Request: fold
Amino acid sequence: MSRWFHDGEPANVVSIDDRAFQYGDGLFETIAIRSGEPRLWNYHVDRLVMGCERLQIAVPDVPTLRKQLDKAVTDSGEISAYCAAKIIVSCGISARGYARENPTAAKTYIGVFATMPVAAKLYRDGVETLVCDTRLALFSATAGLKTLNRLEQVLARSECVAHSAFEGLTLDASEQLICGTMSNVFIVANKSIITPSLHRCGVEGVMRRHTMETLAENGIAVNMRDVGEAEFYQSDEVFLTNSQFGILPVRRCGEKVWQQNPITRDVMAMMAKKGVAECAL
Amino acid sequence: MSRWFHDGEPANVVSIDDRAFQYGDGLFETIAIRSGEPRLWNYHVDRLVMGCERLQIAVPDVPTLRKQLDKAVTDSGEISAYCAAKIIVSCGISARGYARENPTAAKTYIGVFATMPVAAKLYRDGVETLVCDTRLALFSATAGLKTLNRLEQVLARSECVAHSAFEGLTLDASEQLICGTMSNVFIVANKSIITPSLHRCGVEGVMRRHTMETLAENGIAVNMRDVGEAEFYQSDEVFLTNSQFGILPVRRCGEKVWQQNPITRDVMAMMAKKGVAECAL
Reply:
């Protein structure tokens, strides 16, 4: 099923001394591959480079990384038309201890995975969500980044599985809405579009950025600020963004049901025109 | 140098699909081995079991784990008289995604490492520390636990390396003293002993617990509460606890120097009597 590569060669195992295994010392990106091409490549590169700089991990050579990605997608064979690629940048191998002996010896691993498009019905009718009990810690040193320290998302995702929800929305420890376990969230209130500020925690998704930039090109400013739980439940519409599925309306969260989502549909139409084909209804 | 084992066999590599590598989905313990025996074994087990329960990871069978540990120490050969063993419990292997497919398929890895005792001079004169710029996130869902999500400690440890400090002390994002990158911290003020509360973040160290219990047996109550940075710098003495080195006085933090540490010396004497031989001066 999965196919992993390192330096162009198949890699099914890693050293037990890899710092990603020992400490989660690294970053990752999950990229939508469409007709063999990585969608929003430059946005993924931007976040990965920013993450390496903030964590003081050697930045991979981007042209080399792209060549390795293209080769991995090709070598993975028939699944390249519609799949996901996961790039892991680990801080590499060291002896025991938190101290990095050789911070420049970062290692890059690329996995290619067959994926199924989300059912058209969910793009039309929206998805079921819940607000997770798991809270995100505040003022994280890695806020915004997609690091390999993902226990909060793992715990929140277990709640989704237990409740058969498509996605779980997470609040931070000050009860502000932040994001989903695998998505960012936008709300519509009084015809304006709002997305939570992510300076305290959360991941700055590439599809969130693409959505905000697409809206800006259409003359619509997204309001990025704190969103409390009450405001979320009182909103007129809610939608999720994610690199793989693009945009999905939220139909339900707990007892709350959103029946109409005209503005979300407008946003989806704009995104479909900008190459996110899944958003075309 | 290092020797890793899984199910009693040497294990130098792990599956790239191991959730410890992908998400830091697991826990670890670092245990002092003295004359072939794991020191404070029951305390390590208590924390590991509590961690597995809180993270919903299958609890390893403790008698089996102990047999595997003893075998690993023996198989590691000549280093067993004075070494460290690291037990990693990973949530196991799954396909891509935060959701755990089979939460009961946890995997245990045991590494045995030669270690050098800390120089006697440092037990006598104390160690050099700094307060790290890296802040610990607040109200972590994994506060107290020794999880595989250790990026904050990695970043703080890089600061120690840059300043050639023995240890870096970390504050949380509300500027309260929490712990060191690899130790817990105690301060002495007006002859009372205080250690930071760890309900918002930090790791509940086994030597911290052993110190508090030893002091209690000697009729001395440790005050566990918030400690601000100002109170820390104004304290009369500071000492660190860690499973490997036991107790070390702090001689310096930045500009502040502590010249005398009579109460720390009393605590070290009590700990030496309780089997932490390193504390005997």
